[in-house]
Fold FAD linked oxidase domain protein.
Amino acid sequence: MTSTHGSATLDRERLRGLAETVTGEVLTPGTDGYDDARHVFFRHLDQTPAVIVQPRDTDDTAAAVAFAQANGLEIAVRGGGHSGAAHSTVEGGLVIDLRHLDSVEIDIDNRTARVGGGATAGAVTVALAEHGLVLGFGDTDSVGVGGITLGGGVGFLSRLHGLTIDNLLAVELVTADGRVVVADADQHPDLFWALRGGGGNFGVVTRFTFRLHRVEQVLGGMLILPATADTIAGFVRHAQEAPDELTCIVNVMPAPPMPFLEPAQHGQLVIFALLTFVGTAAEAEPVLAPFRALAPPLADLLQEMPYAGMFQPEPDDYHPVAAGRNGYADDVDGAGAQLVLDTLTAQLAKPEVQMAVVQLRPLGGAIARVRTDATAYAHRQRALMLNVAAIVSRADELEAQLPWLETLKAALCDGTPGGYANFVYDDGPGRIHDIYPPDTYTRLAQVKAQWDPDNTFHRNHTVLPAV
Ligand SMILES: Cc1cc2nc3c(=O)[nH]c(=O)nc-3n(C[C@H](O)[C@H](O)[C@H](O)COP(=O)(O)OP(=O)(O)OC[C@H]3O[C@@H](n4cnc5c(N)ncnc54)[C@H](O)[C@@H]3O)c2cc1C
């Protein structure tokens, strides 16, 4: 008997064999839990895999890879399911959903942690907080450690402690030929280099080992200012000039209807910034003074808190329909900031645009102190990352957003190429060379040829094996 879904025709006997081999769940359309497991973070990325395997250990993971290969099924590997490019789901293929590989083993004395390939950033952050330890991921607790780490990892602590990959010590992964290998500075160093920025191109990561930092308290939270060309340009400049202890994520967006904002401010364009200062309130005071002097803050919610307090839990039912564009710039001047304001004002006037936002992330600091060729994340010297995004209510409204997203991004980036794997959506095949400049791409292609010559793992920003 066979079961047909999407492009795959599966033999039920073989499926039963897989279910008997693995200790985790094997879900197919119609089985309990399949529909829940099918969905990813973005609501419009709605696909129907033929099989979803939820491994409980490395052997299960290897069995899932082997099953997919034996049955000609395309593989999608899922950590936290936040890819904006549908990389962690696949129509008619096999999803390896790592949600059960969520262990966090902390070695307090050596300040290291071994983290399962399917853990989430928030869960790891909370586990570390119990010991006064931190590791920087991004800004959202439900993002998977798997995806964010393999792409680089830009977050609340990046200017002080670098990208997530700058704190990565070792990786255990299941390769395309079913081997379980450990890559670190001594074992398979080329593979370890490639895994730090090269995404899911090389196998399924079942465990990461990270270096941790001791940070008990930060001064952090939201600072909301009116958005004008001067405040935006000034905010970014101050964030770039600040000591590394301060990392800022600067969003220009309409003010949400938050209770601490005057009703008249709701919907007005504001600078909605998330600031993390590693140190005390007293130490932060002079660093923050220039930001507060730009304009009277509409809300100043900065406070001393454990680092884990920076991660606000999201509602489980938050699944946006969104499009985004990503790039790098050196700064934003007054003209660039005015363009941001004009473009957002024009787009937000359209009834289908629920949210339009420009996010500016001043980089530098510890990120820039790592050599450009030390990892597969190559944009070490870029001063500013930018994301331009739109949220609409229906998938068929997304395409109309792309031209303005592209135009605004190109104007702010001043035409310079560059892209960050974790924020590049499905922008077309040429973008791979923005994410990986020529030398990086060539080296990645050689590593790919060694570890995944048949391109088994291609639901990612795919590097083709060198020939
Ligand atoms: C709301 C939101 C906030 C974000 N904030 C930040 C941020 O602050 N900083 C930042 O750097 N990024 C951020 N991102 C981007 C995020 O890092 C990427 O979307 C990342 O790929 C998500 O990882 P994931 O495991 O959740 O995604 P998934 O969709 O599960 O995976 C993404 C890619 O990684 C691969 N992958 C995942 N886990 C593994 C694994 N264990 N082994 C092998 N391959 C794997 C997948 O196959 C896929 O190609 C954000 C994204 C969203 C949606």
Summary: The CA atoms of residues 130 and 258 lie 30 Å apart. Residues 9-97 form a domain with the Uridine Diphospho-n-acetylenolpyruvylglucosamine Reductase; domain 2 fold (CATH 3.30.43.10).
